[in-house]
């Protein structure tokens, strides 16, 4: 029997006017984490970070994947409404095996020096939709999906730092679509010493979603 998807029924529909609602990309990331549960538990992570937590569904699910092990699960989002929604979702689901905290920031900017080289699990469902650059962060809602040229402008700000953020054997799970040039991302992070592969793919409407997994050597 598989792990249950965290409940987000406590979030009103009006909340989703400013917070990204769980969708096919969310569920694909959940499936990837569940598929890797035994490997993740064997790794015994102590510090986990989700960037762009939105509703908090993924952070809450990660706690289930880790159970009965304990870890620090940090959830970051530039959108204050998303940080609050994540806090509510964590509180509404049984995440008692983990210590959780929600921080309003882009990526991990307010914690970079403390987290450098210590993140065991890093998760990011980025704003990957191809849009004009000027649409990035134009609203709280747009910050969850507007990715600029190739849907990569926000993601490309993070990628050079990933290898430095991860602990030895640390894992980075990333949601992408084909327009984001996944093979280019795999090659880019391989140069930084990360072993990457496409571990799951799914067609959702016009989008071809994939999960890329990277492991630090």
Please outline what is shown here.
This protein is an alpha/beta fold. It is built from 8 helices and 7 strands.
Describe this structure in words.
Helices cover 29% and strands 26% of the residues. It is α/β, with parallel strands linked by helices. A hairpin with a 2-residue loop joins β6 and β7. α1 packs parallel to α3. The longest helix is centred in the middle third of the chain and has 13 residues, at 80-92. The relative contact order is 0.16. The mean pLDDT is 95.
Give the arrangement of secondary structure elements:
Blueprint: H1 24-35, H2 37-43, E1 47-51, H3 57-66, E2 72-77, H4 80-92, E3 99-104, H5 112-115, E4 119-124, H6 155-158, H7 162-165, E5 166-177, H8 182-190, E6 194-204, E7 207-216
Helix pairs in contact: 1-3
User: What characteristic shape results from the CA principal axes?
Assistant: globular
Order of SSEs, N→C?
Answer: HHEHEHEHEHHEHEE
Main sheet record: 7 strands, mixed
Spans of at least 5 consecutive residues whose pLDDT stays below 50 are: none
How far do the termini sit from each other? 32 Å
Strands, total number: 7
Mean pLDDT, nearest integer? 95
Helix content: 25-40%
Structural category is alpha/beta
Strand content: 25-35%
Q: Calculate Rg over CA atoms.
A: 16 Å
Q: If strands are numbered along the chain, what order do they take across the biggest sheet?
A: 3-2-1-4-5-7-6
Number of helices: 8
Highlighted features:
single chain, 217 residues, alpha/beta, seven-stranded mixed sheet, 8 helices, globular
């Amino acid at each position: 029997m598989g792990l249950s998807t965290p409940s987000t029924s406590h979030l009103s529909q009006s909340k989703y006017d400013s917070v990204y609602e769980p969708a096919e990309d969310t569920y694909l990331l959940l499936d990837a984490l569940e598929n890797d549960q035994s490997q993740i538990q064997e790794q015994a992570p102590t510090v986990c970070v989700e960037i762009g937590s939105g509703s908090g569904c993924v952070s809450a699910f990660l706690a289930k994947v880790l159970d009965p092990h304990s870890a620090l699960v940090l959830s970051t989002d530039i959108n204050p409404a998303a940080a609050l929604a994540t806090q509510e979702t964590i509180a509404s689901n049984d995440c008692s095996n983990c210590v959780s905290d929600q921080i309003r920031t882009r990526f991990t900017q307010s914690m970079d020096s403390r987290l450098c080289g210590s993140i065991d699990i890093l998760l990011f469902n980025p704003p990957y939709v191809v849009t004009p650059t000027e649409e990035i962060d134009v609203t709280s809602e747009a910050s969850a999906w507007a990715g600029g040229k190739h849907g990569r402008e926000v993601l490309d700000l993070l990628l050079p730092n990933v290898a430095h953020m991860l602990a030895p054997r640390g894992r980075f799970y990333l949601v992408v679509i084909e327009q984001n040039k996944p093979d280019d991302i795999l090659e880019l992070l391989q140069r930084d010493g990360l072993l990457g592969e496409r571990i799951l793919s799914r067609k959702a409407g016009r989008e071809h979603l994939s999960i890329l997994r990277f492991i630090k050597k």
